[in-house]
Amino acid sequence: MGILSELEPKAVFQYFEEICSIPHGSSDTKRISDYCVNFAKDHGLKYIQDASNNVMIFKNGSAGYEESKPVILQGHLDMVCEKENSCEIDFSNEGLRLGIKDGYIYAKGTTLGGDDGIAIAYALAVLASDDIPHPPIEAVFTVDEEIGMLGAAVIDCSNLKADTMLNIDSEEEGYLLVSCAGGVTATCHLPVTYEMENCNDKREGALSAAQCAVKITVGGLEGGHSGTEIDKGRANANQVLGRILYGLKKEIHFHLINVNGGLKDNAIPREAGAELLFYADQEKTVEQIIIELGKIIDEYNTILKNEYRITDAGINITVQEVENKGKSFDQKSTDHVIAALVNLPCGINKMNSDIQGLVQTSLNLGILKVVDDEVTFSFSVRSSVKSEKDELVSRLECLMEVLSGYVTTTGEYPAWEYKADSRLREIMIDVYEKQYKQKPVIQAIHAGVECGLFAGKIEGLDCVSFGPDILDIHTPKERLSIESVERVWKYLIEVLRQLK
Alpha carbon of 372 to those of 192, 341, 375, 397: distances in Å? Predict the structure, then answer.
């Protein structure tokens, strides 16, 4: 018996628990896609599975709804796989370890994947039902939404007859999302040259025999979603790392060995690290360098703990000695990497002038890593104004050109524009007011959702995004409200009943 088996609505939580048992991180969606196909086969429903693992499942309208216009139920199959440092889970081979606490479902030590597993669970529960009044259903499950909406970008919508879509990929009950920003993943590529240890070479720039390799780690940050939480003022670990490295550079001579930080371009990185090679000269011994390094790191801990005392109270900079492998970036490459980390734009670029509190344009340095002879910096760039999105990419290109690097872009998706005349929105507002005895919040957000891509593929698409309360998505603190799931389920089935 599953841990969620006693929760209501039973069908929804049954499917959600089954989804959680299947590895389904971004770029690893074949198994969860096949699970949906097998569901369709078991229920005698027509389905389409494309080469990217997107799945469409079709169900006729219930009695009295046979001639109604079809409606799309849409969500994405992939989840963000983040875990605590102490968690040993293998996301590619193990399911999540679910728990329940204080009315919330969570996964032990990892993200939960409520974004967007709950959408798939809702849709499967509707498809499996025989007592819910509904129009013909076209359930559309896309892949790799979390790494650039790649599935929605390539999906063929020619088999869809609906021009109304319920996107269940929002994380705050009571909010009806009707517009969102467009975006693109931009990756800066910075070539680096390595310098091998040569103890007999005493020329300027050669590495000395008296050396010490250390790793500096920025950790303890809150992180979060780079769209919905970019305005929270939280520290970006990669950006903080660049600040520390530049400060160190002004005090102590070193070469970089390695840099890394973050796992997803659309998640604000919670941790970043750099390995540095210090070597003695006539002025400082290795022992003196280590003492000086410790003092500088202590100063940064004091400064950063004060600056981020509200948003990232756990911020902590640590330093430890590591194995000296006798290989590091040369001085020019070290300087270029630090310059890039310090000067690449990151965070909010512009707020919306018409909607108070809405971020209009931003970018997030989500992934920093070394790939062969390059250091790469991957950004999630977002804006509801295409020209501003393009301008941010141009700024990245400008800096990379100066540093002899270049920029590539992938996964571009359009903004989802507000539809002034929306029958679906009016129905959903009316149903909400009757169920909740209050008005819903009609919202435009800075985060990207797949509605923009579908609106570009389906002429005149009438679409609203909604969902239950999911807290701290894209972090190991993610949790899904049980009561909210039940209320939103009742809301969904009543909206379907009204779409006759």
Answer: 9, 19, 8, 21
